[in-house]
Amino acid sequence: MVAKFYRPERWSDEAILEEHRFCDALVENDLPVIAPLKSATGQSLFTHDVFRFCVFPKAGGRPPELDNDDQLMVIGRALGRLHLSSDTHKFEHRPTIDAARLGDQSVAFLESSDLVPMDVRSAYLSLVHEIMPVVHERFAQFPSVHTFCIHGDFHPGNILWGRDDTPHLLDFDDTGIGPAIQDLWMFISGDRQYAQARLGSLLDGYHEFREFDDRELDLVEPLRALRIIHYAAWIARRWEDPAFQRAFPFFASGRFWDEHILSLKEQRSALDEAPLIY
Fold first, then answer.
1. Which of the following is catalytic: 24, 69, 104, 171?
2. Could you tell me which of 131, 144, 135 has the C-alpha nearest to residue 179?
3. Exposure string for 147-182, b = 16+ CB within 10 A, e = fewer
4. How far is residue 78's CA from residue 25's CA, in Å, rounded to a whole number?
5. What is the DSSP letter of 179?
6. What are the angstrom distances between the C-alpha of 228 and each of 36, 86, 206, 261?
7. Which helix (H) or strand (E) holds 3?
8. Smallest Cα–Cα separation from 228: which of 171, 185, 180, 195?
C-alpha cells in the first residue's frame, strides 16, 4: 500500500473527503482511477496525532510514451470518459482553477516576500505584471467557456501505464473546477509542429467520448503561464517547512530565479503566438 500524508492547512477535511468521493464516483463509472482505500466502516481519511492521511493500493506501471500516437489516443479516450462522468459531479469545497487564484494571488505573495532576490526582483515583477493582464484579457474573451469538475493536474507523471495498455490515473490532490483544456495542455509542448501532432492524437481519442470546445485552445498558453507563476509561489508559501527545503534546495539559489525569469520571458512571447488548431 501507499500512504499519503496531508500537510497541515493544505486542505480542509471537507475538501479532502470531496476529492475521495470524486475518485469513488469515477471508479463506479469504470474509470481506471486509483482511489483511496476505505476501512470496514467506510472511512477513507485517517489521523495519527496531528497528521491526516489516506491509503492507496500500490499500483505498478510505467510512464506513458508521449511520442506514441496510439498511447496518446488512449489517454485522450480516458480523459474524454473522465470528463463525461465528472461533468455531472458537483464540488462545494474544491478550488477554482482560474487566473485570480493561480496568478494574482501568487504574484501578490511573492511581491510581499523576501524570497525573491533583490538583484532579480525588479525584472521578475516587471515580467509578471506584464503577463497577468494578458492572461486576464485572454480569459475574458471566452466568458462562456464551460467549467466543471476536472482532475486539475493531469500530466504524464500522474499516469501509470499498465501492462494491459490501460492508463491508470492517480493523484487527484489538485482536483477542482476548471475548463477541459486544463487537463489537456500539459501533454502539449515542444515546437509548433510537434505540439500540433500531439494535440491531434489526444483530441482524436477525446472526441470518441466527449465534444471539445475548440475555443479553449486559446487558453493553452495563458494556463501554462499561470502554472509557471504559481509553481514559484507554491514553493515559497511552504519554504519554512524543512521538508520543502530538502526537496527544493535549488529554490534559494540565484540560478533558480534566473531560469524562472527566462521561462517567464519565453512564455510572454508564447502568449503572442497564434493558438494551436484542431
1. 171
2. 144
3. eebbbbbbeeebbbbeeeeebbbbbbbbbbbbbbbb
4. 15
5. E
6. 29, 26, 26, 10
7. strand 2-6
8. 185
Q: What is the dihedral of CA 91, 95, 99, 105, to 10 degrees?
A: 160
Q: Which has the closest alpha carbon to 149: 86, 209, 96? A: 86
Q: What is the pLDDT of residue 164?
A: 87
- Assess whether 87 carries a catalytic annotation: no
**pLDDT recorded at residue 41:** 95
Tell me which residue of 103, 80, 93, 57 sits closest to 208, measured CA to CA. 80
Cell numbers for 63, please give them. Answer: 510512464
pTM: 0.94
> What pLDDT is recorded for position 204?
97
Residue 153 is a catalytic residue: yes
Cell representation of residue 30: 469504470
> 226-251 pLDDT, tens per residue?
999 999 999 999 999 898 999 999 99
What's the rounded Cα separation, in Å, for the pair 266 and 221?
11
Instruction: Report the CATH fold assignment for 2-270.
Output: Transferase(Phosphotransferase); domain 1 (1.10.510)
Q: How far apart are CA 3 and CA 5, in angstroms?
A: 7
pLDDT below 50 — which residues of the chain?
Answer: none
- pLDDT computed for residue 201 by the predictor: 96
Q: Count CB neighbours of 72 within 10 A.
A: 23
- For residue 138, what is its C-alpha cell? 485572454
Angle of helix 220-237 relative to helix 118-140, nearest 10 degrees, comes to 140
Task: For residue 121, give the DSSP letter.
Answer: H
Query: Domain residue spans in the chain?
Result: 2-270
Give the cell for residue 46. Answer: 485517517
Distances (CA, A) of 101 to 91, 140, 227: 17, 15, 11
